[in-house]
Amino acid sequence: MICVRDLSKRFGPTLAVDRISFEIGRGEIVGFLGPNGAGKTTTIRVLTGFHPATSGSASIDGHDVATASLAARRRIGYLPENVPIYPDLRVVEYLRYRAALKGVPARSRRAAVAQAMARAGIEEVARKLCGHVSRGYRQRVGLADALVANPPILILDEPTSGLDPNQRRRIKQVVRELAQEHTVLFSSHILTEVEDVSSRIIVIHRGRLRADGPARELVARSAARRLRVRAACDLARLTELVRGIAGLTVDRGSAAPPDAAVVEASVAAAAEPAAEVGRRLLAAGIAVHELQVALPTLEEYFHAVTEGSDRAEEHQLAAAAEGAA
Amino acid sequence: MNGALVTLRKELLSYCTSPVSWIIGVVFYLWRGYEMSLVAEQFAYFRGDQDLFPPSTYGLGSTFLMVMLVPGILTMRCFAEERRTGSIETLMTAPVRDGEIVFGKWAAAAAFFALLWLPSVLVLQLLELPPFLDADLAFGPVFAAYLGMFLLSGMLLAFGCFASSLTDNVLLAAVLAMLFNFALMRLPQQLAAQLGPDASYYARELLDKLDVMRNFTEWFARGLVDTSQIAFYVGGVLFFLFLTTVSLASRRVA
Q1: Helices (DSSP H) in A12-158: which residue ranges?
Q2: For residue A240, how many other CB atoms are within 10 A of its CB?
Q3: How high is the mean pLDDT in each 10-residue block of chain B (254 residues)?
Q4: B250 touches chain A (CB under 8 A)
Q5: What is the tally of structural domains in chain B?
Q6: Which candidate, A122, B24, B167, B172, has a CA 20 to 30 Å from the CA of A190?
Q7: Rounded distance, CA B197 to CA B199, Å?
Q8: CA atoms A120, A122, A123, A126: torsion sign
Q9: Using CB atoms within 10 A of its CB, is residue A210 exposed (0-12), middle (13-18) or buried (19+)?
């Protein structure tokens, strides 16, 4: 339904999005993650036809957003980050106007607006002026606007930003319900929310794609995992056995009286060293009290693929600079 | 054209509920009413000159206000306000062509402008009645003058839309439009006066067409409606609406 190929967007000297590619299939509900300024909103604006791409392409349900923009836009319901609504219109008038603008036929417009309001839970403010509704309701009016023409694809840019926990919960519930009939791409930097709602996450940082896949799988294969082993031997022996296993970096160790030691190590991305650790300890005839690989939380994973990758890049650059010197 | 009609309806509703529109209406009617009473008194005092009456009904300060100042005020919010509040994003990501949005906004401004003038035509009709002037006034030239003024205003409103698409500052958009209106009313006359006897025919013709004040006094106010004048103003409307559409599209690129 959404296909992005080598998409880049430059604003003057700033490269906001740097050759990202991903696909989102029918019925998927995808969380679009990244720190502030990562390029999420820019990518979304290219998808919705608000900005053209500098290079690369994006298509919505087979319609290129640059060459068949109108057809692509017909298939999208879009909720921008800051919902801009006309303060002098009543909520119901605003939604009727938006439904008409999106080509909802006059005979079914009233029903479409009523249904969108019911789904977003804003019936009680239908007669209020848009300028007088609270931020939470404003966000939901924006959501009702995205839903009113019943498009197959929903793109929601930070739908819960600035909302209180109850309002967030309500929006999450709505997004979950929408996934039954729509393809949903929603951006956020609130990780628990993404974990709760989405079947897959895409992480973008500094304009580049950092990760793409189901959250659990990404976390299970991530570089932020930690291995902990407690065995009946002294610390030096245990460290010696563990060190040298591919994909494992010993971080720290300590004696665990009366007769054991504990070693903790970082596990490299995609590495599965636990079996090898167990095999070596058994071969050495050492009793294993504990051997576990702890998965990071999504928050730790997010930190690792964003700021962690920054540090790795900085080290590489520093090493390259030293080499050149 | 669905997008244009929807935009027209929504914008017209906004004009009707905007305090600025009501203030313009009230100021215009008060001023216009006062001036019309002066014109009517003079007409009665001098026992009515049918040839002088039509020009005197539109050659008033209130007309100057309406043509020079009001188009810029009416159109200043068209795109500048959408940009300022960010609603331009939802507007331009809706499945509607930019040209339809531009035309709808201009048409709403033009329709509201026409609505503002409508009561002043009724005032003229009232003046014919026995309690007032009890005279058979020549309405042909008056209506021709109204037509000319609407054509000119349509062009100025189209420029106003263009000015509004250039900035997110509504005040700047209004000032830009007013400056343009003022220049259009003054500059062609001044430039034509500067032309020497050996100036090209085309330069003279162009300045002649652009001299909107003379178009009124010598054509529309005398009841003369020339198709070339109509074509000039309609062309002006289309030109500025086109520029507005291009301006929006270029902002989309930015």
Answers
A1: 40-47, 69-74, 91-101, 106-120, 135-147
A2: 14
A3: 89 89 88 81 68 62 80 91 90 92 95 87 76 71 82 92 92 93 84 78 79 76 80 91 92 59
A4: no
A5: 1
A6: A122
A7: 6
A8: negative
A9: buried
Q: Which amino acid is it at B70? A: V
CA distance B52 to chain A (A): 45
**Shortest CA distance from A98: residue in chain B:** B94
Q: Closest Cα partner for A76 from B183, B23, B95? A: B95
CB A229 within 8 A of CB A288: yes
Interface of B with A in 222-241 (CB under 8 A): none
| Nearest-CA distance A204 → chain B (Å) | 22
Reading the block at residue A79, the tokens are: 């909720």
Q: Which residues of chain A are within 8 Å of residue B85 when distances are taken between CB atoms?
A: 84
- pLDDT, tens digit, 9 for 90 and up, residues A37-55: 888 999 999 999 898 899 9
Angstrom CA distances, B204 to A196, B33, B210, B235, stand at 73, 38, 10, 19
Amino acid at the residue A151: P
CA B246 to chain centre: 22
- All domains of chain A, ordered by start, with CATH? 2-220 (3.40.50.300), 225-294 (3.30.70.980)
Find, in chain A, the residue whose alpha carbon is nearest to that of B100.
A101
Helix (H) or strand (E) segment spanning residue A159: none
The 3-state secondary structure of B170-231 reads HHHHHHHHHHHHHHHHHHHHHHHHHCCCCCCHHHHHHHHHHCHHHHHHHCHHHCCCCHHHHH
The two three-digit tokens of residue A313, written as one number: 């890049």
Residue A55 backbone dihedrals phi, psi, to 5 degrees: -150, 170
Residue-wise pLDDT tens digits, A218-240:
777 776 778 888 988 888 888 88
Which residues does chain A have within 8 Å of residue B1's beta carbon, measured at their own beta carbons? none
In contact, A262 and A280? CB cutoff 8 Å? no
The residue with tokens 């085309």 is B202
Asked if A84 and B97 come within 8 Å (Cβ–Cβ), the reply is: no
Domain of residue B76, residue span: 2-253
pLDDT in tens, A141-190: 999 999 999 999 999 988 887 778 888 888 888 888 887 788 999 888 77
Mutation to test the A interface, candidates B90, B97, B168, most A Cβ within 10 Å = B90
- Residue B62's pLDDT is 76
What 8-state DSSP symbol labels residue A296? P
